Amino acid sequence: MLQLCAVMATAETSGVPEKDTKNDLAIIAPNDFNATLNYSYEEIDRHALNAPASAESSVDSLAAYLIEPAGNDREKARAIFRWITENIDYNVEVFFKGGTGPTNSEDVLKSRKSVCYGYSDIFLSLAREAGLETIRISGYGKGYGYAPGKNFSGLPNHAWNAVKINGSWYLMDSTWGAGYVSVDKKYVRKFDDHFFMTPPSQFIYDHFPEDAQWQFLDKPVSKQEFENLVFLEAEFFNLGLKLGHRNGTINAEKQVNVSIYAPQDVLMMVGLEYADGAAAGDGYTFCQRDGERYDIYAQFPAAGSYILKAYAKQKDEPGEYNSVLEYRINAASGDKESPGFPMIYGKFSEAGGYIFSPLEGKLKAGSSYLFRIRVPGAGNVSVVCGEEWTDLASRGVDLFEGNATAGKGDVGVYAKFHGAGWDGLVRYNEE
Predict the structure, then answer these.
(1) Strands laid side by side in the 285-290 sheet
(2) Residues ≥6 apart with Cβ < 8 Å to 389
(3) What is the pLDDT of residues 248-284, one digit of tens each?
């Protein structure tokens, strides 16, 4: 028993997801081979969330209550999953002390707290009590503290479940479906539907079972391949994003560019950090939409290892952008004096703007530059240097072009939409 506890304590070093967000101040896919079926869980979810205290006195009484209105095994599994994600908190105190706390299903039911082993054990017990064929899977998870390029060794660090429904196995992770640990090391409950019946082609990006058969893939991924996969957050799949570059580690010179495919109602932004977590500074990243694709560029102040992060959100949703993916970039060289990229503002991204030139972030005063920019929906686009406005000529649908001379100070690009006032799109600094 002591050995098991030691194993579990060691294993839990990254078994819970970490949340990372960016605010909306300035804006600087793997394909799903197992498409998620459309299915309404509204009624069964409501039943699970309204479980009375009398039903929660034991595993068997709770299971009996949860599955009472279920019309099939899918709804049984859903009721159990939804109750757990709403009622069990992740035990952050134990986690950061390197322990496990209670993990037996009956203990978890009483304490309402646990780590991944407890979440998966209570799911296992409730599902079996409900007559479902269920297993608990142990392996490696890209959870709290994970960074792209990390190799996994030693004992497994995470546990989840699989349930057989209508003759087929389905993956689910009630730990990660329940919430996440914030950057200030606090547990935040936030239900994430992604981790219920997750397609194996998506699950493999952050879950690697000890036994390859539990990947449920026609061609299982090796541990090395798993470690090399780009780090994708659940929100990547929730927003319908797709990859242009699957390898999570990219070797580059002074600059790198990658593509992410996104629906038209999704906005994106990017940021660059050193591999140790320190910010690389402003102007080293750039992100803009070209049709169904976001083009992402990054430059590097010096040779070294970096983390390139992408953030996204629905266009009509206010508030923060959520982290969707991370790449590790090994730069062979860099240039601290590089002009970098221009700063783009929210209106530019919302309009689906695209800059062809200039792409350097610093312009030399007195020099003339060709400004060529696509701004869907704009009636007028102008370059502003101090008090001087230079109107760009319309060159067909949504394309504006013209020469302007950079003056002292910042240079801005502004657009006018449908008779409204002028909106800032892009800002360049003086070299």
Answers:
(1) 242-243, 255-261, 293-299, 285-290
(2) 382, 383
(3) 999 998 889 999 999 999 999 999 999 988 888 888 9
DSSP codes, 190-257: ---GGGEEE-HHHHTTTEEESSGGGG--SSPPPHHHHHHB-EE-HHHHHTT-EES--BSEEEESSEEE
Nearest alpha carbon to residue 276 among 145, 159, 390, 381 = 145
Residue 168: other Cβ atoms inside 10 A: 10
Question: 306, 271 in Cβ contact below 8 A?
Answer: no
- What phi-psi label fits residue 409: left (phi over 0), alpha (psi between -120 and 50 degrees) or beta? left
Q: Which residue reads 């992100």 in tokens?
A: 287
Report the 10 Å Cβ neighbour count for 397: 7
pLDDT digits (tens, 9 = 90+) for 332-352: 998 877 889 999 998 999 999
Question: Which residues share a beta bridge with 306?
Answer: 274, 329
Could you report the per-residue pLDDT of 86-123, keeping only the tens digit for each? 999 999 888 887 777 778 898 889 999 999 999 999 99
Q: 96-101: list long-range contacts, CB under 8 Å, 24+ apart.
A: 96/185, 98/9, 98/10, 98/12, 98/13, 99/5, 99/9, 99/12, 100/5, 100/8, 100/9, 100/12
Q: What is the mean pLDDT of the chain?
A: 89
Angle at 176 between CA 175 and CA 181, to 5 degrees: 100
Which domains are assigned to the chain? 2-229 (3.10.620), 242-331 (2.60.40.10), 343-430 (2.60.40.10)
3-state secondary structure of 83: helix
